[in-house]
Structure formats: C-alpha cells, structure tokens
Design a protein that fits this description.
- The protein is built from ten helices and two strands.
- By secondary structure, it is an all-alpha fold.
- Strands 1-2 form a two-stranded antiparallel sheet.
Length: 226
C-alpha cells in the first residue's frame, strides 16, 4: 500500500472499538434472540446454557452502550446534518441507482451514514433504559408488571430495528467498494475519497498542504569547504 496515494480515514483507536462493538453485538444479538425465541437453542450456545445467557446478556449490552458512547464522543461532530445532506436525500433515487450527483459536496459521512449513526445511538439508548427496567436481578422489582411488559415490548422492537440496521450497514459497506478495506487498514485511496466524500477529501488535502507548509525548512550546511 502506497501511503502517498492514501488518506487516513479511520484512526486505530476507532477501528479497535468498532471491531469490539461488532463482535460483542453479534454475541449479544444472538443471545437476545435465544431468550426471545427459546425454541432456537443454537443461539443460546453462543454464551453457554440458557441460565448463563440470561445472566451475561444484560452485562454485554451495557458494555456495548459504553463503547458506543465513546464512538459518539469521537464521531458526533462528523455526523451533524447540513444543507448538502438535504440535497443528497432529495437525490436518494439516483444514489440508490449508483448515479450519485457529483456536484453535491459530501463530508466524511453522507446523509445515509449520519442517519444510521443517530439511529444506532437512539436505539442503543432505548435498549439500555428498557433493559434496566427488565433486569430481574437488580431493577425489575422497582417497577410494576405493566411497566415491565411495556419495556419488554419496546426492548424487542428496538433490538429488531437495530439488528436490521446493522445488517443494512454491513451490506452497504460491502456494496461500496473499498469501504471494508478502509475500515481494516484505516486508509482509503484518494480516488475513493474524492468520488465518495468530495468535501472531506478537499478538507484533508488542504490540511495536508498546510502541514507541509508549516514544516521547518532544512538548514543548509554552511560549513562545507569551498
């Protein structure tokens, strides 16, 4: 990989947390499905016995929430909607057809990625709140049966919605060539950045140019013999 032709898109710490979230989400989702559908015993094997699954599932959910809050802190400023995102949404039919308008400046994330980001943050918050209400060992005794039933209903809806969103996220990452490699290595090609995130590409080029200008010039050796 020639780094002269590449741009750092995802720092190592963000990639590390992303991988941790993916692994824990798969385990937590499968364990949750095994609780929701007891007849699917294979899902329960992810964490062991059904009893162990019920014990570990909420703790794993809390870990995922903490990791996502770190991602919120690191990436929220890149996911603020702007007027160009509105233009992108209005041209969603062209985007889906693979004919994304080139005259729309796209930042580090497009409107679809921003929508996904905030949906994930919202759904994980719903899962955390409803999960605490349902958590029989520690908190359920403080709530009425009616409240717990409502919490179970919304917890299930949020879980299904989040699973579907993550599946869609994975599909889009595979569909847009270069995205998976970019997440693994952290780098994307300049051509990929310019094509998919033109505004972010221009900002990075300006930043790199400014860094080059600010580098101290090498002092010439004035002590050489003539």
């Amino acid at each position: 990989m020639n780094k002269e032709e590449m741009i750092l898109r995802t720092p190592l710490i963000v990639r590390f947390f992303h991988i941790c979230i993916v692994i824990l989400f798969i385990i937590t989702a499968l364990s949750g499905l095994s609780i929701f559908f007891p007849s699917i015993k294979a899902f329960a094997l992810v964490l062991g016995t059904p009893q162990l699954v019920r014990e570990l599932h909420p703790f794993l959910g809390c870990v995922i929430f903490v990791l996502l809050m770190f991602m919120l802190f690191k990436l929220a400023h890149h996911n603020i909607l702007n007027k160009n995102d509105v233009r992108w949404i209005k041209n969603i039919d062209k985007v889906i057809a693979g004919k994304e308008p080139e005259d729309i400046p796209i930042g580090k994330y497009n409107a679809g990625q921003k929508f996904l980001f905030w949906c994930i943050m919202g759904l994980i918050s719903v899962l955390l709140i409803t999960g605490f209400i349902m958590w029989r060992r520690y908190f359920a005794e403080y709530f009425s049966i009616e409240v717990i039933r409502i919490a179970i209903f919304f917890h299930s809806l949020a879980a299904i919605a989040l699973i579907l969103l993550i599946i869609g996220h994975a599909y889009m990452a595979i569909w847009v060539k270069g995205s998976i490699k970019g997440m693994i290595t952290g780098y994307v090609s300049r051509a990929w950045a310019k094509k998919n995130h033109s505004q972010w590409y221009n900002d990075e080029m300006k930043k790199n140019h400014q860094i080059e200008l600010n580098k101290p010039k090498e002092k010439s050796d004035t002590n050489n013999a003539v």
